[in-house]
Amino acid sequence: MSVSRPPVLAAGDQVCFRGEVRAVTRLAAGVAYLGGLEPAVALTELFTDPDFAVVSAGSRAPLPPEGLLEVLPAEVTEQARWLEGHVAEVVSGLPADAGLDAVPRREYDPAVTSLRQREIAKAAELRAAGHQVPLRTLQRLRRRYETEGVWGLVDHRFTRRSWPAGRVDERVVDAVRRAVADETERSTGTVDRLRRTVAQILAAEHGVTDPSPVMPSRATFYRLVARVSAGRHTFGSARTRRSLAKRPDGPFGMVLSVRPGEWMQIDSTPVDVRVVLDNGMIDRAELTWLIDVATRTIPAAVLRPSAKAVDAALLLARALTPEPMRPGWADALRMSRPVLPHRRLAGIDQRLEHAAARPVIVPETIVCDYVDHGMVYMSQAFRSACRALGISFQPSHKDSPWEKGTVERSMGSVATLFAQHVAGYVGSSVERRGRNAELAAAWSIIELQDLLDEWIVAAGRTGRMTGCATL
């Protein structure tokens, strides 16, 4: 037997109750006030009535776009809120800021008046108060409010962007935009090269063989290019330019994670520390780790000469296994020291009795990079491990690093908060590397792994990404 959820009511809805259609004038705690019917009716009685049905749902204004109202001038926002109070009264019979005990005025009561009667009454009320809001304008505002919410009542003259081109020919502006977009994959050049590209586009697309009449002066052209290419690094770093070009045009989305393990991210990156490999060669190790988005903690991390599919599968095993305390670790790093129900946890798993304060989190969903390490995370070994543990596997889209921005940002913290304090640190590039820095390599991968594990536990214990500053 399936049980359906009770309907969601709001003031202005038309419902059928006891064989008659009535308007919901207002809602209070557990009761509904219906037009022409006294006293109030309990919601349980209303929903269980054999004749109950929602005949028509009243207009419910959607929420305004998040953050957009805050950037408008205060007087523009106040004007929109003032209009919302009047328009909402026309739509539902009650102002937008009406309390639970508010009762519709007779001329705006949906139970006894039509929508047009309420519009005429509101236009007359505003006119008597000295506000020139014609009936047609009020109707247009009402339609916008029903589809866009309070954002539809905003004076959009204040939301329009200024035209960066001024009086420059639109063909030139379009050609500049196309030329700037084409610079994304090219080697970095100068504005003069871009100017020649614009001239070539004008000749090919618009037949302008002599661009002198339509091209602006050199100073104006430079200002136009600066505005069009702002924030794109068109004449700067090619690597940064290509990275910025991957960003979406609209605002980023947001995935909310409210419990540990609900949303985890995995990635790999070289560590800026030279280590001594088993064959005696000196090279950088590659770090693969898992980060929990909800708690911002690191359940597991492994170091290898190069990341392989088995290392990613091993990472899952380490995330599900308590980290044992090791000789030389401070007693403050024990799991029994943080404010956690340690005795209850130890009763569930005896290994927690002598475990370090590293979280044991069961992943539900893991997001990985499909492009950079596709051979590792898309391998049969890793996917089989996820499937065996009941973990949902979610590759990110191509050229979409923001989809796993938490782990991307945390990778940068490894260098500044851990690697730079370790012997053998060589920096992230040749420009940051000291003289003969690789000769300071003193660790094997196993030793560096032990230092990394201690740092992760210390960072989670203190709530700060510190703990190895004196290595």
- CATH H level of the largest domain: which superfamily? Ribonuclease H-like superfamily/Ribonuclease H
Structural class category: alpha+beta
Largest sheet strand order: 4-3-2-1-5
Low-pLDDT ranges? 1-5, 465-471
Summarize the biggest pleated sheet.
Answer: 5 strands, antiparallel
Radius of gyration: 32 Å
- Tell me, briefly, the overall form: flat
DSSP strand count: 10
Work out the helicity level: 25-40%
| Overall pLDDT | 80
Domain count, please report it: 4
Tell me the CATH topology of the largest domain.
Nucleotidyltransferase, domain 5
Compressed to H and E, one letter per element, the order equals EEEEHEHHHHHHHEEEHHEHHEHH
The portion of residues forming beta strands comes to 5-15%
What is the count of helical runs? 14
N-to-C span: 64 Å
CATH class of the largest domain: Alpha Beta
Q: Label the CATH architecture of the largest domain.
A: 2-Layer Sandwich
Describe the protein in words:
This protein has four domains: 14-56, no CATH class; 69-158, no CATH class; 170-245; 264-323 and 358-462, 2-Layer Sandwich (Nucleotidyltransferase, domain 5), CATH 3.30.420.10. The chain has 14 helices and ten strands. It has helices at residues 43-48, 74-92, 115-128, 135-148, 170-182, 191-206, 218-228, 238-245, 309-319, 342-348, 374-377, 380-388, 405-417, 445-462, and strands spanning 14-17, 20-28, 31-34, 41-42, 53-56, 264-276, 282-292, 297-304, 365-368, 392-395. The strands form two sheets. Strands 4-3-2-1-5 form a five-stranded antiparallel sheet. A five-stranded mixed sheet has the order 8-7-6-9-10, with helices on both faces. The model is unreliable at 1-5 and 465-471 (pLDDT under 50).
